[in-house]
Amino acid sequence: MSRIDYSKWKSVGESGSDDSDSEARQDMEMRKTAWGPLEQLKKVADGLFEVAEREDNLDSYRRALQHYDELLPRIQELQRADPESYLDKGYHLTVSCHLNACCCFMRAERWSEAHERCTIVLLTSRAKGHHLSPTEEMRARYFRIMTAIPILEASHAVLAQYASMGITTVNNDEANLCFDH
Length: 181
Prior knowledge:
Elements: H1 18-33, H2 35-55, H3 58-81, H4 87-107, H5 111-127, H6 134-164, H7 173-177
């Protein structure tokens, strides 16, 4: 793939030669179309996720999760290359990938990994000043609570085992993370 000269985009519409304007417009069009393949990959991953939801098939969840995990670095790469105009679009694609991956982990009862994805969504929205849509925020918070419950139940079971052995002070970092943020 050829490298795009991003410096020309700022001068589009300003007075100058027609050649540089048309070249800059072509670069802008290329930049707009760069998101197309990522959106198609997201649709494929979402399709696998829908099949998994309908059939309750762990293998389909696993394949959907692989697609989401392959898609996330590509979105981040395109965001770095084009930070100005499509930052919000890439952010919401990333959030959707993380939340759907969270669902995949929850269906496979991989609670820690699911909890981590929810936390990534919530912390990123605060740290980078993005705003989650109400639906995204509701899903992230709901999933975070639903993943914390099994983590805490497992922690309590382990603490009970330690207590039966006479050990009363145990620090469980994973359970403590459920209370952070």
